[in-house]
Amino acid sequence: MQAARIRLPDGRISWTVLDADHETVESARNWLLHLENIHMAPTTVERFAKHVAALGLFLSARAKTFEQITIRDYDQFIAWLQRQRQKSRAPPPHARAGARRHRG
C-alpha cells in the first residue's frame, strides 16, 4: 500500500492511497476528499494519506484488512509508528559510538 500524489486538471494537488495492485482504496480516498472539502491543510491531507498507507501495510503483514482492524491492532500500529520515528531520529550507530569515546 502506498500514498500517491495526484495532480488535478486545475493544477491542485490531491492524495490517494493505492493498494498492492495499484488500485485506489476507496474508503481512504473518500476520507481524503472529505478532508479536502472541509478545507484541511494540504499537509494534513498528505500526512493522513501516508499514515493510512502505513496502517494498510502494517495490517497486511498481519493478514488483516481495514475492515478487520481492532482497537488492539490500532494501538500496536501506533506503538510501531512511534518506534519507527525514534529510529529515524536516532544518530547512526557509528556516530553514537564516537560520541561515547570522546566524552571526558
**End-to-end C-alpha gap:** 48 Å
Give the amount of beta strand, in percent: 5-15%
* Helical residues, percent: 55-70%
What gross morphology would you assign? globular
Largest sheet: 2 strands, antiparallel
Poorly predicted sequence stretches spanning 5 or more consecutive residues: none
**For the CA atoms, what is the radius of gyration?**
18 Å
Number of domains: 1
Quickly give the structural class.
Answer: mainly alpha
How are the SSEs ordered, and which strands pair?
Layout: E1 2-7, E2 13-18, H1 26-37, H2 42-60, H3 71-89, H4 93-101
Antiparallel strand pairs: 1-2
Outline the structure in words:
With 104 residues, the chain is mainly α. It has one domain (2-101). It has helices spanning 26-37, 42-60, 71-89, 93-101; strands at 2-7, 13-18. Strands 1-2 form a two-stranded antiparallel sheet. A hairpin with a 5-residue loop joins β1 (2-7) and β2 (13-18). The radius of gyration is 18 Å and the shape is globular.
Brief digest:
This protein has helices at about 25-35, 40-60, 70-90, 95-100, and strands spanning about 1-5, 15-20. By secondary structure, it is mainly alpha-helical. It has one domain.
Features:
globular, mainly alpha, 104 residues
